[in-house]
Amino acid sequence: MNTKIMKQTFQKSLLCLLATAIVGIFTSCSDDDNAPKIPENIITDLVTIATIQEQGATFEFQKLEDSPTISLVAPNIKFDSYLYKKGQRVLISYVPQGGERYVNDIVTVYGIQPVHNASIIEAPIADYPDWDFAPISVFELWRTGTFLNLYSLMEYNIDPRFKVIVDEETLSQEYPHIYLTYEITSTSNSSLKSFNASIDLAPIWDLVTCRGIIVHLNNSKGDDTITLDKFQTIKPL
Prior knowledge:
Structural class: mainly beta
Strand order of the largest sheet: 6-9-10-12-13-14
CATH superfamily of the largest domain: NigD-like, C-terminal beta sandwich domain
Number of strands: 14
């Protein structure tokens, strides 16, 4: 099986697991027989909140890399304005009205979960000599549009203090170097927890000189260095 097919198969399995988790959170507040039932055809995707109202929202996302933008309209969803804002990246579990995935449609949302919307820090990587101290157990790392998306396990208690650093000395190069890192703030009561992040690469990706990026991380499950080429799939160095 080629790398791209394996990647898509793994991502499909991953999102099925996330769907179960998200809807589980959504329905856990009610144990009675009136609790929402999980549809068999439920879908989970990582999306951007494009518009948001007191009731109703529009979500946008791309299937993979530079594929066309897809718009999902959820007319009946109600938001907590303290948790969700326009432009925020979130995981949603939903069923499209037309039953087809990856097309513009009206949807019924059954669950929603925030992900870490990390900002990029421009600094010399020499300022972070211990950047690779804490391992990241990567299940999936993929690009959609200008977003770098991460699904992983990290060891932390409350806040992993996740950082995305671009080595400023490489910004003028065709492939700037990006480092994914976090701090283990305390070993007391810390444990491996799932951690989802979506990083907007636009300030780097849209540079005229940029032909891609090189991502560095202490990956306990595989490659520590991954190259993302513009208009191409992810490949290990």
